[in-house]
Amino acid sequence: MTESMPFLEVKNVTKLFAGEKISGVKNISLSIAEGKITAIIGRSGSGKSTLLNLIYGLIDPDAGRITFLGERVWGPAEKLIPGHDQMKMVTQQSDHLNHYAKVWDNVASLLPNTNLTYKSAKTTEVLQQLRLLDLKERRVADLSGGERQRVSIARALVANPKVLLLDEPFNQVDASFRDNLQQDIREIVRQTGLTVIMVSHDPQEVLSLADELVVLKDGEVVEAGNPQQLYQQPENLYTATLLANGTVFNGIKAASLGIATKKKTIMVYAEGFYIDKNSIENLCTIEAVLFKGFYEELVLNNGTVKFKTINLNVGAYQTGDRVSVTIKQFLTFEEGLA
Ligand SMILES: Nc1ncnc2c1ncn2[C@@H]1O[C@H](COP(=O)(O)OP(=O)(O)OP(=O)(O)O)[C@@H](O)[C@H]1O
Fold first, then answer.
1. What domains lie within the chain, and their CATH numbers?
2. Electron transport among the record's keywords (predicted)?
């Protein structure tokens, strides 16, 4: 690959579906960086899966083109077996697994028998990377949902694809299992230079896992950048509400909290408030204390507006307490509330 050649490029791609209302993706252009994890985020129906399917070549664009390593990605209209040879996709359904075969065979069967030493070594390597080696003799039918997802990913990786596409792959996996799997994927990316493009609904997941975020709204890219930048300085209210837990106010309500701005909308993240039990400025009532484990969510009301904040000092506040609230930081937007 030459220096100037983009790794994977989506250029002015449109794919529309006729339905009650026209939907799909519209005039999308983006460049995917090699060896990085790019997450596509957006509300339900914003076109995330459609974009992933277009990149993989599972559907044909109406207009525009996708190029991978300088060559066009062809869709089913031009290609008999859909899906690019150097990409692999894993979705929530692990239907392609043979549930009655062992984990080992499900993974090894993707490699040819021309070099049995390589086949065995590569299968061992991938099973090890995905912490499946101890389960290699188990039938897929006897595995948990999370373990099956690991097998699906191992199967996808055994043939050394350049790109792994993940469509909400961690949805059915419990939180601790998901964290471990995410760390393992990060490690594989670091070790092998694999490029990952994932679709996710989960803000925690994309913020901790992705190097780059692409935000889709109604089939269009509204914003893209690294997670920290998009979390701290989103250009759009839409992006802020996708990524952060916070409260959105109009100007009048914001004024009641001491924020003066000409912008239409204000968002304060849950961590943007400062609570003080001992001050009498800007008093608010605690309407609810929601235990979340190592922190609590407090629902507060100042008589004009209700909002939520987090409190790490678990047990310090009770429902009905009056506390002083100061806003440490907030974001302003020209957009009105949707
Ligand atoms: N094959 C299809 N035929 C008709 N409409 C479709 C088809 N595929 C997708 N759509 C529509 O295109 C829009 C985008 O769908 P897509 O599945 O890409 O969204 P998404 O962001 O992945 O949503 P979700 O998060 O709910 O999975 C939706 O309105 C959907 O109904």
1. 8-241 (3.40.50.300), 245-333 (2.40.50.140)
2. no
